[in-house]
Records
---
Amino acid sequence: MGTAAPMVPGIILIIVGAVFTFALRAESSWLDVRVLGLILMLGGAAFIARSRVKRRDRQEAPLRDSRTEHLPS
């Protein structure tokens, strides 16, 4: 799995949210399309931030050597 793969859903959410916010000119009595777009963009940004934190934590975690764990000290 590539390094950018966990961030792809967040990028897609940001793109779809931007379309709803800036490009779509639809009106509805029960749905504000601009607010929906902003919510999608914020969700995408949060998804990207979470995936970056998880990736950093995974890189900083010490590797365990399973061959030496079972040896008596």
---
Amino acid sequence: MPHHARSRRPWAAHLLQAAAAAACAGTGVAQALIIDQGTMDAAEWAQVIVTQTGPATLQVFAQDFGGNPGSSWQHQYSVPAGNAAATRVREANIYTAAAYDPALSGALASLTIGFDVQVTFTSFSDGSAGFLIPALLQGGHVYRQAQGAIGPLSANWSPRTFTSVLAADWIEQDTNAHPDFSAAGSALQFGYLFSLGTTCPSTAGCRASAAGSALDNFHVQAIAAVPEPATWLLMLVGAAAVAAARRRPVGAGGR
């Protein structure tokens, strides 16, 4: 028997053994990105304006106190006196110190974003203080949670968590487009979106008003899809078969 035929068998057997081991190991451990931020460092975040209409302004800043406990993100929305028919501010705050890259870690199978929220003050008659909505950034586009807003409802700290398994759970504000969670998608960064709109129903004008809210304990868990054991087995057996075929001699006597 030619030498190269003898050397092929142990090598192919090793691949088959690896395939069997992968199949027996269950689904394995998924690739994951975990972010747990209780200390808010402004240098690790970036603000992206999504919508700005009317004379309203928004200040977003980190401070070393006012959190749950410790540091926090503060949001102060204000609209001057006058008769502006409508104003709207939407601004994303994105954590830039970490990203999930589907090209490296695999398609995104599950995404959880959570944080604690609190109303700090409001002078609006209906008690409005804005909404804080889970958001993500991909390819320069901001996508928000599509299933309604998460509003800071009271002066007490309240936890808010949103878990998603589909890219369709997220939309871009003006286009209704969705992000790409597949392995072909670009890197994802995570954060939240502040949103508040106000109107002045009086033709005589309205007084100046303002509202504030706080956010703390921002956390993310992004988990990749993991092939089933049978998929691993087929992949490895296929690779072994292809490699073995390439090493097969042309004829009994060689060239």
---
Amino acid sequence: MEGYAIFINKNVVGFDIYRKATEKPLFQIIKNLKSKIGQKYQLKDQQGKIIKNSDELKNIISILNKKNLRLIK
């Protein structure tokens, strides 16, 4: 993992994870501020497909831990 970005608007807050800063985000963690039950947090892949919906951020993070992402210094 080489980069990240945070975005905020009136309906969502998001955290993008990039392999390279010039590419699309590898993953997006999105918090929906006007969410339905079970859909407060979403994890999306590079194509925008929803991988996981959850009311708990730890469930989203556990999916990323399984992907073996490494921080590049």
